Every structure is written in structure tokens, then in C-alpha cells.
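FYI - complex with coproporphyrinogen III, inputs then prediction.
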Amino acid sequence: MPEFDFIKAAYGLPHDRIPIWIMRQAGRYLPEYRAVREKVSFMELCHSAELMAEVTKQPIDIFGFDAAILFSDILLPLEPLGIKVSYDNGGPALTPQVRTPDDVAHLKTYEPADEMAYVLAGIKEIKKRLDGIVPLIGFCGSPFTLASYMVEGGGSSRFAEIKKFIYNHPKAAHRLLGQLAEQTGRYLKDQINAGVDVVQLFDSWGGILPLDAYEEFSLRYIKMAFEICKTEGVPRILYLNNTAPYLKQLAELDCEVIGVDWRTDLNDAMNILSGKTIQGNLDPQLLFGPGKLVHEKTLELLETVAGKDNFIFNLGHGIQPEALVDNVKLVVETVHSFNIKRDQ
Ligand code: CP3
């Protein structure tokens, strides 16, 4: 029997309190995080086991979340492919961009256990500092989301380049996605071997695809990665931004938890994905609003899932730098006290 409520909830097993964590919980909305970032760059932070452990633990100490998430970034495993990733000017920038079949053929292959050893060392340090208080979540970007960043060269609003690429060069796209799926699956497995208790794949951009293209270019490669890292007792979470159109397709995926975005109806998710645990889905931008509304909306969400063992509380996407710390405290308190109410 797993010991943490978080792990029990991930398997839909009976437990005492609804667990809560939030995506991007270690980040710039926290003054304690900004204080560390005043001294070092984001890249330096991601390469120091000591600092990774310090910022991973900050939101656990401040808010009492039920899980910690490894401090790293989904784009770092692209560097050993021969891609330069920079975070210096706001959003990430990747060079050179991958735009042709030839570009795909020239990517390097690598052993995640070697090239990502600095992250695995960070995981060991984090586990030491967490000292068994909460489980640790490891993560990767989904193959399609990573490919989008590689082709677009950074963030995007129209995703014109990645769509041009998959429609004009489907063979090369499949070759790239296959390489990313294998690398992602093995990297997640290495994270598990280093000590993470749960893994999450972030499919931030798969939700821009039509249903058939989602199956062909994203879901298929998520399946491959999850098959490779499947480990007894280590739940696998898929977060998909813009979840609602794809719920039926996700029902077929072999994984334990689906993270849903804030536009998705929780009852629909619970019904269509019966047998899986649902994670979500408060609107991250609600945390810019007044406390009274934050409290009401949190309670409303909790009422929808009252008495269910297959639910993990989260936001519907990552927390944003403008989020108010007091609102985060309020959400955690509301979730934790609601659990006591449920038990009465
Ligand atoms: O606390 C945590 O959740 C753990 C760490 C984490 C980061 N990024 C740290 C980070 C995680 C899990 C991620 C995931 C990530 N990174 C995703 C998937 C989640 C999502 O939002 O859809 C994506 C798409 C990225 C790519 C990325 N990294 C972007 C777009 C940016 C810039 C965005 C911004 O807010 O400026 C980053 C940089 C980044 N990754 C920061 C952090 C805390 C900000 C860096 C800083 O301190 O300046």
C-alpha cells in the first residue's frame, strides 16, 4: 500500500485528504524564488543540485503542498541534440531551428543518463532534503510539444511552422517524434531510477491539432514514452493543455492520471476517463483576483469531486508570475480543510 495520499489518489485508492500541488509551483510569483534568481541565471540554477533542491522545497515549506516537482525545464534535454536553448530574453529561444528532413537527420543521439546526469544528481539531492515528507514528481515535455519548440524556435501563437512541417514532411516529422519519444521515455526511466516517485508529461501544445492529427503526431508518441518508463508503483500523469476535445482519445491511453486544463468540464472528464484519476483545474488567472472569489471558485470545484478518491487538485495550467501568494495560501487551506469536512 503506498504511504502518501498523493500516490493513493493517483491510483484512485481510498485516502484521507484531497492532495494538492500546482504546476510551476516553484517560480517567479514567489519572493523566495526571485531572491535566488537575483544571484544566478535560470541556467545556472538548473545546473546546481544544491539550488535545485532549495527552490524545489520552497513551495512545500511555504504552502504545505502534497507533492514537490523537480526544478528543471522541459527544454533542457534538447541541448544534447545539438540545439542551443536560451532563456535570456523573456521566452525561450532555440537555435538552430529544425525545418527540413535534413535538419532532423543531423540531430545527435544521446544517452540521457550521461547527458542529463546533472538533473539526476539534482533529484538525489532533492530527495535527501525532502526526507520523505512528500513525494517528488519528475517530468518531461511530450514529444510533440518538444518538436513544436524545435521547429518554431521558441514559443508561438499560431504554430504555423510546426504545422507546415508535419503536413509537408510527415516522414521526417515521424522520425523526429520517434527519436524524441524514445529519449523522453528513457529519460523518465532514469529520473525514476534516481528517485522520483511520480512522472508527468507536459503536452502543452498537442491541443492545437485536429483530432486525427493529435492521434498521429502526439498521442502515439506519448504512448511510446509511457510504455518505456512504466514502473510498478510509479504513477504516470499526462497533462494536456486544451483537454476537452481529446477526452475520448485519452481514455485509451495506458497511464494513471490525466491533468486537465481550466476550460474542461470536470464531470465530463470524470465520466469519460472513468478508471483514471483526474488532476486539475482551477483557472491560473483566477489567482490575480479577489480572495473571496478564489475561495468560492475553489469550493465550487471541490463540490464537484466531493467524496471521490480519484482526484488531485491543481490549476488548469502553470501558475503565472502575477499570481498573488495570499491566494495560493487560500486555495491550499480551502482544499485541505474541505477534506476534513468530507470525513465527517
Ligand atoms: O515548479 C515547477 O513546476 C518545476 C519547474 C518547471 C519549469 N518549467 C521551470 C521554469 C516546469 C515543470 C516547467 C515546464 C515547462 N517549461 C513547460 C510545460 C508547462 C507549461 O507551461 O505548459 C513549458 C512549455 C516550458 C518551457 C518554458 N520554460 C517556457 C515557456 C519558459 C518561459 C516562460 C516564462 O514564464 O517566462 C521557461 C522558463 C522557466 N521554466 C521558468 C521557470 C521557473 C522561468 C525562468 C526564470 O526564472 O526566469
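The domain at 5-343 is CATH 3.20.20.210 (TIM Barrel). The first strand starts at residue 68 and ends at 69.
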